[in-house]
Amino acid sequence: MSHQKFGHPEHVQLAFRAVRQYGMPAAIDQVCARLQQLAEYQGAPQKYHHTVSRAWTELVAHHVVEDPGCADFAAFVTRCPALLDKRLLSGHYRSATLASPRARREWVEPDLAPFPWTTGH
């Protein structure tokens, strides 16, 4: 995955591979570290966003758990096409929340709707 072509689908694929290899919650650490390194390599460390990175990793993990035998990323996103929609987090977070400096540097819980795997706890 080249840094010149590292958009949203590549982020989802990174999370998919990390979740399958490391499981949760270790995948969060792996994905976040990789994305921080990538942002620094690109000379734009300010692009790293911790809440977004963790939230997407958790979303991917939630779907991986539903079909743990699926090792093919293309088949995975065919089964879960909503993961390719960058706006998916807008159902869980206010835009002002995600734009905050705090959300960029540390985990912030959803403030519109909880993630489905956290309800009932």
Q: What features would you describe in this structure?
A:
The chain has one domain (3-111). The protein is 54% helix and 0% strand. It contains six helices and no strands. The protein starts with 7 loop residues before the first helix and ends in a 16-residue tail after the last helix. The model has no long low-confidence stretch (mean pLDDT 92).
* Strand residues, percent: under 5%
How many domains make up the coordinates? 1
Number of H- or I-type helical stretches: 6
How much helical structure, as a percent, in the residues? 40-55%
Q: What's the helix-strand series?
A: HHHHHH
Radius of gyration: 14 Å
Largest sheet: number of strands, sense, barrel closure:
none
* Mean pLDDT across residues: 92
Could you say which overall geometry the principal axes of the C-alpha atoms support? globular
Briefly summarize what is shown.
The protein has helices spanning 8-22, 26-41, 50-66, 73-79, 95-99, 101-105.
Task: Name the descriptors.
121 residues, mainly alpha, 6 helices, 54% helix
SSE blueprint:
Elements: H1 8-22, H2 26-41, H3 50-66, H4 73-79, H5 95-99, H6 101-105
Helix pairs in contact: 1-2, 1-3, 2-3
